[in-house]
Amino acid sequence: MEEVPLIRVEPPGPMARSIIARDSEVLVQSYVRWVPLVVKEAHGAIVEDVDGNKYIDLNAGIAVMNVGHSHPKVVEAIKRQAEKFQHYSLTDFYYEEAVTAAEKLVGISPVDHPKVFFANSGTESIEGSLKFARYFFEGSRQYFIAFLGAFHGRTYGSLSLTASKAHYRKGFSPLLPGVVHVPYPYPYRCPFRTDDPLECGEAVLGYIEDWIFHKLVDPSEVAAFVVEPIQGEGGYVVPPDNFLPGLRRLADKNGILIIDDEVQAGMGRTGRWFAIEHWNVKPDIIALAKAIGGGLPLGAIVTRGDIASTLAKGSHANTFGGNPIALAAMSAVIDVIKEERLLERASRLGEEALKFLNELKDKYEIIGDVRGKGLMIGVELVRDRKTKEPAERELAQVIEKSFKRGVVVIGAGLSTIRIAPPLVIEEEHLFKALNIIADVIKEVNSSL
User: Fold this and answer.
1) How far apart are the C-alpha atoms of 396 and 145, rounded to whole Å?
2) What is the CATH code for 74-339?
3) 3-state secondary structure string across the chain
4) What per-residue confidence (pLDDT) applies to 190?
5) Which of 3, 20, 315, 436 has a CA 20 to 30 Å removed from the CA of 227?
6) Do domains 14-67+342-446 and 74-339 have the same CATH topology?
């Protein structure tokens, strides 16, 4: 087995520093890099930087490379399609690659009588989902209910839903009207001051029904709930088991749609094709991106057939959505997940990782909570277990020290370590990485 991690020169090395300096001269610096990693190549769950250092990847390019970096079947599919044709505007013409990819997506979808619209990204999938919901009700329902802690994208419609960090929205107001935010049932930090997860779920549902619907917005004016079945940027927050089934009942009672944002949690990450399936809930619309393209820009909306049938010709389209090369990659991704039984693998490795991390929690006060499903795991750090004060500075230390030792991991939420490796990661590599993080946590914990 390949020797990893392998640190030849303390990162960032000279080549990395040179490229980072050039980057600052020509690229808009409107985003924040977690660590100074300059990638040269990547295979499976191993990333090599330009100075020859090799790292174990615990973020999968932000939950994109579910089948691993440079998977041979995905690479071959991309090459094969690129030699045929690269583009011909699906929303103006036809090609079989789109039909084949959509058939595969329909075959794994929990939506009733599903139909597919291809986009370019997660934020486009959310924007299109909002339009579909509004159009379905012929404009008579102008409101959407979203959740605090949510991340749905950064274009204006999706940003209007996003409420995970204030700086995502700062400077861009006024955003779109008609979005009402309500608390998300975050068991470790329940906004309704209860430590009982089920009570937290019921409290959120009761708040929507008793307060939002009775005092702010009549439910007959709400087009959809927009929800992440597991919050991503909000901190890898897994809701209580009664929440999503209760939200479905509340939606059905009032004729409201559920838009399920599976951009980060979907395509096998949690051990199911879609995270919402853990709660046996059927959404009306699913928004997808990230992992479906195998590293290429691709988004998708999977919607109920009766919703799709209301859309008039010309009501929604784009130029590059459903690019044939990206669709070839997507078809290969679905095949690989099936052939290599990656759903089962994610479940098994996730259970083992959660056991390891919960044992770590028993040792170190800095770990306040461990949660997750499959290989979508959050480890929340706190400065004080009683007050649950977030350990933001300590999170940054864990990320930096882990990087220096050859593990690329990032954060989420207030102060949560986000663990989302490629689903193909070797078990030995996964636990090497977790043991490195454990050693770093031990160091950081001792300085509290």
Assistant:
1) 33
2) 3.40.640.10
3) CCCCCECCCCCCCHHHHHHHHHHHHHCCCCCCCCCCCCEEEEEECEEEECCCCEEEECCHHHHCCCCCECCHHHHHHHHHHHCCCCCCCCCCCCCHHHHHHHHHHHHHCCCCCEEEEEECCHHHHHHHHHHHHHHHCCCCCCEEEEECCCCCCCCHHHHHHCCCCHHHHCCCCCCCCCEEEECCCCHHHCCCCCCCHHHHHHHHHHHHHHHHHHHCCCHHHEEEEEECCCECCCCCECCCCCHHHHHHHHHHHHCCEEEEECCCCCCCCCCCCCHHHHHCCCCCEEEECHHHHCCCCCEEEEEEHHHHHHCCCCCCCCCCCCCHHHHHHHHHHHHHHHHCCHHHHHHHHHHHHHHHHHHHHHHCCCEEEEEEECCEEEEEEEEECCCCEECHHHHHHHHHHHHHCCEECEEECCCEEEECCCCCCCHHHHHHHHHHHHHHHHHHHHCC
4) 97
5) 315
6) no
Domain-by-domain residue ranges, the chain? 14-67+342-446, 74-339
Amino acid in the structure at residue 140: S
Could you state, in chain order, the average pLDDT of each consecutive group of 10 residues for the chain (448 residues)?
91 98 96 96 98 98 98 98 97 96 98 97 97 96 97 92 87 86 98 96 98 97 98 97 98 98 98 98 98 98 97 94 97 98 98 98 97 98 97 98 98 97 98 98 92
Distances (CA, A) of 45 to 296, 407, 426: 17, 11, 8
> Whole-prediction pTM value?
0.97
Its CATH class, for the domain covering 14-67+342-446, is alpha beta
Work out the number of other CB atoms within 10 angstroms of the CB of residue 116.
22
pLDDT for the residue numbered 125: 98
